[in-house]
From TrEMBL:
It comes from the Bacteria. Gene3D superfamilies: NAD(P)-binding Rossmann-like Domain. It comes from Acetobacter garciniae. Pfam families: adh_short_C2. InterPro entries: NAD(P)-bd_dom_sf (IPR036291), SDR (IPR050259), SDR_fam (IPR002347). This is SDR family oxidoreductase. Belongs to the short-chain dehydrogenases/reductases (SDR) family.
Length: 259
């Protein structure tokens, strides 16, 4: 399927590794000019060079911590008129809510809710003026199936989803859609870090926890970053223009609810 994205411009956050990197590569393969954003300069440079060589479309990058307002401004100086915005970034580590003080909660909100909302604020009016825009928030299955140890993520990411759902209905008439992708267990750097932290907290081995999580999933495996990237790319497509305010699980069927 031709997603009809060639010639469009995208900002992809968290693009130096994992799912963000896979999304940037997939969009570039569709002919999108991508601006990669992350904090790791070396990884960003390597990813941008790989994408440019692979796609023939120059990829640029911005080294930025998106919790900083000035850093977000620099991203839009590099790509002032994005047609696509993919909000994606690391979350907070698992833990016990009794240990989380106000500073922990504010850090989580800055990282997983307020920074993505400001990225949307900077992008959405230009999209509506041009008559095309696709915004995808990469969040987590925890917004539908909360895990107690992921309380910081449950709260902050759910706030982003709720905000996005309200805004999506205001802008879809201008051919701008806003959707959320909810990955489950994906074989990524973030997942490995999460399991390592669980191993540290529980005293269990990393290997046993990793195997247990895979076996517990109906698909009997971890998902691939490329599978998430394909989902995001479709939601960015011309064909997906009637899909908005949705939260799509990519979790191998792990969520046990009907809706």
């Amino acid at each position: 399927m031709d997603l009809q994205l060639a010639g469009h411009k995208a900002i992809v956050c968290g693009a130096s590794r994992g799912m963000g990197r896979a999304i940037a590569i997939q969009l570039a393969a569709e002919g999108v000019s991508v601006t990669l954003v992350a904090r790791d300069a070396d990884r960003l440079a390597q990813t941008a060079a790989s994408i440019t060589a692979m796609s023939g479309v120059p990829a640029q990058y911005v080294v930025a911590d998106l919790t900083d307002d000035a850093a977000r401004a620099r991203v839009f100086e590099a790509c002032p008129e994005p047609d696509i915005l993919v909000n994606n970034g690391a979350g907070m580590p698992p833990g016990d809510f009794r240990a989380w003080d106000r500073a922990c909660w504010l850090e989580a909100l800055d990282m997983m809710m307020l920074a993505p909302i400001d990225m949307i604020r900077r992008a959405v009016d230009g999209m509506t003026a041009r008559g095309f825009g696709r915004i995808v928030n990469l969040v987590s299955r925890s917004v539908k199936s909360p895990q107690a140890e992921m309380g910081l993520s449950n709260g902050a990411r759910s706030g982003l989803v709720a905000f996005s759902s309200g805004l999506a209905r205001q802008v879809v008439g201008k051919n701008v859609t806003i959707n959320n992708v909810l990955p489950g267990i994906i074989d990524s750097d973030a997942q490995h870090a999460h399991v390592r932290e669980l191993a540290h907290q529980t005293g269990r081995s990393y290997e046993s926890l990793w195997q247990e999580r895979a076996a517990a999933n109906p698909a009997k495996r971890f998902g691939k970053a490329e599978e998430v990237a394909a989902t995001v790319s479709f939601l960015c497509s011309v064909q997906a223009g009637f899909i908005t305010a949705q939260s799509l699980l990519v979790d191998g069927g792990d969520y046990r609810g009907v809706f």
